[in-house]
Known about the structure:
By secondary structure, the protein is an alpha/beta fold. It has 14 helices and 10 strands. It has helices at 11-22, 34-43, 80-88, 113-120, 135-139, 153-163, 176-198, 203-223, 228-231, 234-245, 250-259, 271-286, 291-300, 306-314; strands at 3-7, 26-30, 45-46, 50-54, 59-62, 74-76, 97-100, 125-130, 144-149, 168-173. Strand 1 (3-7), helix 1 and strand 2 form a beta-alpha-beta unit. Helix 7 (176-198) runs parallel beside helix 10 and helix 8 runs antiparallel to helix 10 (234-245).
Amino acid sequence: MSTVTILGAGAFGTALAVALARGGAAVTLWTRDPDQATRLSAARQNRDRLPGVDLPESVSVTAEIGTIPAEGPVLLALPMQQLAGFLAAQPGLDGRVLVACCKGIDLATLEGPASVIRRTCASATPAILTGPSFAADIARGMPTALTLACADVARGEALQRGLSTPVLRLYRTTDVTGAELGGALKNVIAIAAGVVIGAGFGDSARAALMTRGYAEMTRMAEALGARAETLAGLSGFGDLVLTCTSSQSRNFRFGEALGRRGTFDPAVTVEGAATARAVAKLAAQRGFEMPITRMIAALLDRETSIEEAAESLLTRPLKQE
C-alpha cells in the first residue's frame, strides 16, 4: 500500500483523500485546525465541505504537521495565496516530493505554485496536479482525468502510478509552466464567463468569450515558455470548458454575481480574483496583450463598469482570427 500525505482538508483535499484511499493508498489528511481534525476523526465526514461522503478507514486525520509520514508524496491542497507563507514556515518539507493542487498566481511575487515550491523548498521536487475536476465528483467516484506535471521524468512516472486510481486517470507532462498557467488563467476567464451570463449577454457571448479567452491564455503561456499543446489539454482547454459552463465553479459563480450586481459569500475562496490582478500586473510588466484579464482586474478594483468593460472589448480593432 502506497503512502500519501495531503495538506489541507478543504473540499478538494478531502476529496483527494477519499479517492486515493479507495484506490488503495494509506492517506494522512492534515488540517491546520485542531477542532476540525477532531470533528473529521469522529464523524468520518467533512460535513462542512463534502456532506454525505465517508472517509475510508485508511484515511487518518491530524492537525500536527510533525506527525505526517516521512515517506511518500505530499499533496498541497492549500489556497494559492497562502502557499508561500505556509511552505516558508515548514522547513521539514524541503527535500520531499511536493505536488501543488492549487491553481493561481501569487499576488505578491507573481509566481505560480511550482515556482513558489522551488523558491521556498530548494531541495524539493515540485509537481502540479491540475485539470477539470470538482471535489464532489472526485469524492463520489465519478470518472475524472487530470494532468500531472513534473519536470523530473522518473519521479513524474512514479507519481502517475502512485496517484492514479481506476476512476482518477492522470496524464503526465514535463511542461510544468504550461500546466500551472492553464490552471491559473482559466479561473480568470471563468469569472469573465460568469459576468457574461450574470449580465444577461447570453450563451453565444459566453462561447465567444471562452474562445478569445483561450487564445489569451495560450498567448501568455507560450510567451513564458509553455507548450501550446499543454494548453490544448486537460490543464488548459479541458479545465476552461468545465469552469466556464458549470455553476459548481466558484469562479464562475463569483463572476455571475458580479455580472448581476449581486452579493457573493466572502468566505468562499475565489482564486481567480487574485490571479486576475496578478496576471494584469505581469502582463503590464511584460507587454502581454491580455484584454479580458485586464477588464476583469479593472472590474474587481471598481475602475470600470460592466457596460464600459463590454464596450471596450467589443470596440477592439477587427482583425484576422
